[in-house]
């Protein structure tokens, strides 16, 4: 069984859209958003996947979500059928933190026909051995200090060492200030991250904030040989579920 986020109560967040971030930006894909996360970013734009009533981990909005309305549990075969019905040739699995459900994900992915699989992860959880060979791309987004997570929980050296061995891994760092770029550069040097497969992306949930931050982030990306990612879905659809 898989635990998914919802668009509306009882309706799993499974949809077709254009990938809005990272190396596959602009590509038509199917999405499935899983629920639950082991981290708690203060700026998280999908807090409805983890900050349920009774969870006191800090978030800038201070909102708490009812678990029953924002989670749904489905059989892996049901999830696979809904994904296949969207008619796409690529699936993006996101969250929350998808790799917390690696065993069930592996069972679900084996039921997909003719689809490549892309997983978005915070990089703190190792892929399940049964799932790993089925994944064509990982978008690993380690969380920086400004996320509010303890560094020893969000930046695990052993995980970095494992991720850099995988050729299908891309790194993506969410940046809010120029100081965050300095932290990214330190992580690149410390953990020998492949600069040519490392993105920096502005944090923001509205077009004005993203554009303002891209104005100073773009020259820094150029200066340091990093890739720049926009958040295209925010410009197209706003900060909404199922997009």
Automatic annotation (TrEMBL):
<feature type="binding site">
    <location>
        <position position="41"/>
    </location>
    <ligand>
        <name>[4Fe-4S] cluster</name>
    </ligand>
</feature>
<comment type="pathway">
    <text>Purine metabolism; 7-cyano-7-deazaguanine biosynthesis.</text>
</comment>
<feature type="binding site">
    <location>
        <position position="94"/>
    </location>
    <ligand>
        <name>substrate</name>
    </ligand>
</feature>
<keyword id="KW-0671">Queuosine biosynthesis</keyword>
<comment type="subunit">
    <text>Homodimer.</text>
</comment>
<feature type="binding site">
    <location>
        <begin position="43"/>
        <end position="45"/>
    </location>
    <ligand>
        <name>S-adenosyl-L-methionine</name>
    </ligand>
</feature>
<dbReference type="GO" id="GO:0016840">
    <property type="term" value="F:carbon-nitrogen lyase activity"/>
</dbReference>
<keyword id="KW-0460">Magnesium</keyword>
<dbReference type="Pfam" id="PF04055">
    <property type="entry name" value="Radical_SAM"/>
</dbReference>
<keyword id="KW-0411">Iron-sulfur</keyword>
<dbReference type="InterPro" id="IPR024924">
    <property type="entry name" value="7-CO-7-deazaguanine_synth-like"/>
</dbReference>
<comment type="function">
    <text>Catalyzes the complex heterocyclic radical-mediated conversion of 6-carboxy-5,6,7,8-tetrahydropterin (CPH4) to 7-carboxy-7-deazaguanine (CDG), a step common to the biosynthetic pathways of all 7-deazapurine-containing compounds.</text>
</comment>
<dbReference type="GO" id="GO:0051539">
    <property type="term" value="F:4 iron, 4 sulfur cluster binding"/>
</dbReference>
<dbReference type="InterPro" id="IPR013785">
    <property type="entry name" value="Aldolase_TIM"/>
</dbReference>
<feature type="binding site">
    <location>
        <position position="33"/>
    </location>
    <ligand>
        <name>substrate</name>
    </ligand>
</feature>
<dbReference type="GO" id="GO:1904047">
    <property type="term" value="F:S-adenosyl-L-methionine binding"/>
</dbReference>
<feature type="domain" description="Radical SAM core">
    <location>
        <begin position="24"/>
        <end position="239"/>
    </location>
</feature>
<dbReference type="InterPro" id="IPR007197">
    <property type="entry name" value="rSAM"/>
</dbReference>
<dbReference type="GO" id="GO:0000287">
    <property type="term" value="F:magnesium ion binding"/>
</dbReference>
<keyword id="KW-0456">Lyase</keyword>
<keyword id="KW-0479">Metal-binding</keyword>
<feature type="binding site">
    <location>
        <begin position="141"/>
        <end position="143"/>
    </location>
    <ligand>
        <name>S-adenosyl-L-methionine</name>
    </ligand>
</feature>
<feature type="binding site">
    <location>
        <position position="96"/>
    </location>
    <ligand>
        <name>S-adenosyl-L-methionine</name>
    </ligand>
</feature>
<feature type="binding site">
    <location>
        <position position="46"/>
    </location>
    <ligand>
        <name>Mg(2+)</name>
    </ligand>
</feature>
<feature type="binding site">
    <location>
        <position position="44"/>
    </location>
    <ligand>
        <name>[4Fe-4S] cluster</name>
    </ligand>
</feature>
<feature type="binding site">
    <location>
        <position position="37"/>
    </location>
    <ligand>
        <name>[4Fe-4S] cluster</name>
    </ligand>
</feature>
<dbReference type="GO" id="GO:0008616">
    <property type="term" value="P:tRNA queuosine(34) biosynthetic process"/>
</dbReference>
<comment type="similarity">
    <text>Belongs to the radical SAM superfamily. 7-carboxy-7-deazaguanine synthase family.</text>
</comment>
<keyword id="KW-0949">S-adenosyl-L-methionine</keyword>
<dbReference type="InterPro" id="IPR058240">
    <property type="entry name" value="rSAM_sf"/>
</dbReference>
<keyword id="KW-0408">Iron</keyword>
<keyword id="KW-0004">4Fe-4S</keyword>
<protein>
    <recommendedName>
        <fullName>7-carboxy-7-deazaguanine synthase</fullName>
        <ecNumber>4.3.99.3</ecNumber>
    </recommendedName>
</protein>
<feature type="binding site">
    <location>
        <begin position="18"/>
        <end position="20"/>
    </location>
    <ligand>
        <name>substrate</name>
    </ligand>
</feature>
């Amino acid at each position: 069984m898989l635990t998914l986020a919802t668009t509306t109560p009882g309706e799993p967040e499974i949809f077709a859209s254009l990938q809005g971030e990272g190396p596959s930006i602009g590509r038509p894909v199917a999405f499935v958003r899983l629920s639950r996360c082991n981290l708690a970013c203060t700026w998280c734009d999908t807090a409805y996947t983890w900050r349920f009533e009774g969870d006191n981990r800090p978030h800038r909005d201070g909102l708490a979500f009812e678990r029953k309305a924002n989670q749904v549990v489905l059989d892996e075969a049901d999830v696979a059928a809904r994904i296949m019905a969207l008619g796409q040739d690529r699936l993006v699995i996101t969250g929350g933190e998808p790799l917390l459900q690696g065993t069930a994900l592996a069972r679900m992915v084996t039921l997909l026909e003719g689809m490549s699989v892309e997983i978005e992860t915070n990089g703190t959880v190792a892929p399940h051995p049964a799932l790993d060979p089925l994944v064509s791309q990982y978008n690993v987004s380690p969380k920086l200090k400004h996320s509010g997570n303890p560094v020893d929980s969000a930046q695990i050296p052993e995980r970095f060492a494992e991720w850099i061995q995988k050729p299908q891994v891309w790194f993506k760092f969410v940046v809010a200030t120029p100081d965050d770029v300095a932290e990214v550069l330190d992580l690149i040097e410390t953990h020998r991250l492949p600069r040519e497969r490392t993105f920096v992306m502005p944090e923001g949930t509205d077009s004005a904030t993203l554009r303002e931050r891209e104005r100073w982030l773009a020259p820094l990306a150029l200066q340091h040989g990093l890739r720049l990612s926009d958040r295209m879905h925010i410009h197209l659809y706003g900060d909404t579920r199922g997009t």
